[in-house]
Amino acid sequence: MKLIEELKNIDPKTPGSWPWLVKFAAFGAMFLVIVAAGAVFDWQGQWGDLKAAQQEEEQLRETFLTKKREAINLDIIKKQLIDTQQSFGALLKQLPSKSEMDALLTDINQAGLGRGLQFDLFRPGPEVATGVFTEQPITIKVTGNYDDLGKFASDISQLPRIVTLNDISIAPGAGGVLSMDATARTYRYLDEDELAAQKRAAKAGARK
């Protein structure tokens, strides 16, 4: 009751005469008002800046993670590219050059003769360009026993250059031997002059 009476008798114009409890209460109220006003008028802009900074940080983190994943994928792609180039280089070495084609044709012929086969036909056909490679078919007809024909096919597959046997047809021949008709196909890569000539021909065709 005494406190209530003191509050009623407080003169706002003479705060120095206020009781200490009232002074502390008034000071606390003023402090809270100042803090609230600062939050509204001053800190509000800073809170906005902080929110914007946090959003920017999140975006930068997402960008970093995306770039990191791309970098990891790029390393994988580079490794795959190197592996592909190495594999392509190894395959390319199995293709004869233009100067080696005659020797390869001789190797195919010798593979049959070495197995005791008789060549009734050995006719290289014209080369057909397919991109940066050419394909040359060789029509062959050989006669011999079953084992020798099989060994000849195996020898062809083991040549250091790529040669495939296609359209194989085996029929009984005279004297108990077998006759095999097939098309051997070999491939070679075009040299720089041939590639340049191919590009010139393509451009000339496009102009027409």
Automatic annotation (TrEMBL):
Say if the entry is tagged with keyword Transmembrane helix: yes
* TM annotation in the entry: 20-41
State the superkingdom.
Answer: Bacteria
Q: Name one GO biological process term.
A: type IV pilus-dependent motility
Which Pfam families does the entry link to?
PilO
Query: What keywords would UniProt list here?
Result: Membrane, Transmembrane, Transmembrane helix
Q: Which residues form a coiled coil?
A: none
Q: What is this protein called?
A: Pilus assembly protein PilO
